[in-house]
# Entry
Amino acid sequence: MYAEVDNLAIRKLPLAPGLASEYALSAGLTVPDSAIGADPDGDGDNNFEEWLKGGNPAADDRSRRLLAVSPSAAGEFRFGYYRMVEAGAAGVVYDFQYSTSLTNWTAFIAEELSSQPDAPGYERVECRVPVVPTAGQPVLFVLLEARGQAL
# Structure
């Protein structure tokens, strides 16, 4: 008696880095171009960021930015970002911070305004920064930290 195993993968937690590498491999990249920190297409986003935004790690897609901030007509700061629909199942958590000076950062919970389906498994989310702390500020920086966590 014997057993045959095909496509066995043993992953260390957190799961996100392994899934990001698998995403790069499925785009046709090979080692070492499939490493999560590699940017083989030269668009400024490494393979982990490409996975987070549903981008193509094998082709320049710099117009598909993970996060974009813009002021609205009402004077509030809005931003859009790409989010994986099943981010929690992949062990990905999204954290937000804002700053008016790039020196002091304040964590905040983004107020989600809308979400639209995007590439399979992804959505484009429109949010706003809380109005009270940012009222009257001419400049605002938003930091999106997407991190893997152990499941």
Observations:
- The chain has a mean pLDDT of 87.
